[in-house]
Amino acid sequence: MNFYKIVLFGYLLLAVCLTYIILRDRSRVGTFCNKHKNYALAEVLFLFFTAMIAFDTHFIEPWTLKTTDVTVAMDNITIPIKIAFISDIQVGNHKNEKWVEKIVQRVIQESPDLVILGGDQIDNEAYLRDEAKELDPLKTLSDKYLTYAVIGNHEYGIGSATRENTAWQTGDRSADTLAELKKINIKILRSDLDCPKIKGQTICLFGIDDIWKTPQPDFSKLQKFNPTTTIIFITHNPDGILTWPTNIQKPELVLSGHTHGGQIWLPFIGPLGSAGIQLPNKFYRGLNYYHNIPIYTSTGAGESGGAVRFWNLPEIAIITIDKNQNKE
Hints:
The chain has helices spanning 3-26, 32-35, 37-60, 97-110, 139-144, 174-183; strands at 66-74, 81-86, 114-117, 146-149, 187-188, 192-194, 197-198, 201-207, 230-234, 253-256, 265-266, 270-271, 286-290, 293-297, 315-323. With 328 residues, it is α/β, with parallel strands linked by helices.
């Protein structure tokens, strides 16, 4: 049982005990709660409300998988292409093979033309079993659809607090993950360019390794590029766009993950958890624009640290790239 579960169950137990004591004393003449019945009732309602939030953050939201539909217009697309984008599955401490199977079935229901995995496929935080093996159900996707993946910081055992201190990192498991992904026929993009033809249209996918492991990605394969071809840039960390060279054609779409949307998203405040990115908070989730470049940041399908979420469900993003109506 991890720290978050101890805190959660501890608070639920405390809320139940305090509620019993307040309601008991509310009916006892001479007690504080009896003299201030309205105040006592407000305390009970507060305890109930916060207990429900605590219950939701661990038992409901992390296990409620949603699909998010997004459309992005592109100049060189004439027939819509549907991409299923899945990031931060993080099998291990919290999510397992059953969760991966659920993701796979949900993707199949959407009938995409292309599947892209956005990194952090494994959790790699004090987990003893071979996490990469729990990605096996993804083979069902790679058998049906073109499927690509990039690698995230968790495959390397690098966290926000351990970037500068290798002694505290959880170990490099990237080789295990890469071997598993290759075994199930998922194409890996590590400063690689691949240009599949989908519905008679060529789109180019360029993916990089995690920038916390490789701060200066190799963009050499893009040096001689046809400017009429659509480029989709896949970077686990949305800050990857900050590494894009100024002398190379800009991507028409960036797909990223890493942030989990902060896991806890508070109204009017935004992400509570920090993912250690340089971009502003609006880039923690959803579709946003960086110098007119659309960046979609997934809230992820798994959790980091603790299995907690609030106002921020795990997701599969269904991204449709379609023709730019303004060009007609």
